[in-house]
Amino acid sequence: MSLNKKFDFIIVGQGLAGTLLAHDLIDANKSVMIIDFNLKASASRVAAGLINPISMKRCIPAIPSFYLPKCFERYRDLEKKLDSSFLNLTPLLRLFDSTDTNDKWKDKYISGGMDIYIKEFIIDNSFSFLDDSSSSAIIEPAGHLDVINFLDLSRIYFSKKHFLLEEKFDFSQFNDSKISYKNYIADAIIFCEGFRVRENPYFNYLPITPTKGEVMTIRIPSLEYFDKIVSKGVYIIPLGNYLYKVGATYNRTDFTDKLTKEGQVFLNKKITDILNVDYEVVSSVAGVRPTVRDRKPLIGMHPKNPRLGIFNGLGARGVLIGPYLSKQFSKVLSGVHNQELDFETIARFS
Known about the structure:
eight-stranded mixed beta sheet; 7 helices; alpha+beta
């Protein structure tokens, strides 16, 4: 551990949010100490990392268009920094459940401005291993991030740089007037704790509504690799070597890392609705997402102590929106960006 006990920032949590913010602050030449313990039920540890710019139900853009290139650019930069690969640009195949849905998508393509994302419509029964009897559409650009690989490589990087303290944050050891934790002192502390922010005495007033999700890894013996992400009620993401990740479920009452019978039945039912070939379940995992009632991230500084901050609640599209939000927040924290952020902060709850 570094002999220097004084840091610009302490970051609590090394999930997706904490990792992105730590990289941005370090790249801005700020000293950072990350405090994290690999707790069970972490959402980032079970995230599929899907990068999808549109709403599948309504066929409308899910986010402003500038988020997507910022997302790809940042992960490519981080791949160079960590000397590895974890971003996969893969088209998304949207299987329609009816001809009515197909017609609605074609209307959006022709007159709704969705031609920037919908690359082509595929005639029905084009893929023998899929139930695509109502045809499909290809969405591009899209892809997925290998979140676990990204987090693990970042953790190794932080550890080698002596930026990581591997332990569960103990609030009884924290002084909020000095911004000190045990022997570490910082100018500010940013909490990136996921759904466990509910246990944070400074930010537990925020309306976190956790959502448990279960995902499954399956093996399709007859299909070594399919070069598209499949979407129809759930996603099926190609991992290579006959393996695919499937998810996800939504459970708003159970916040443990235990698999449920209902969740596993749901995923298997969705898989059989999509595939025309045999598959086998390799593994299943569960995690809890820090979702917010208004579906907007929790970002900003505490209303009574401007040295306490939060970067959390990125939601289902966290992999997509996280890089831009982290970059903008890091600029404010670093004093580079003094203007108002172009997204809502936790001030909306004050």
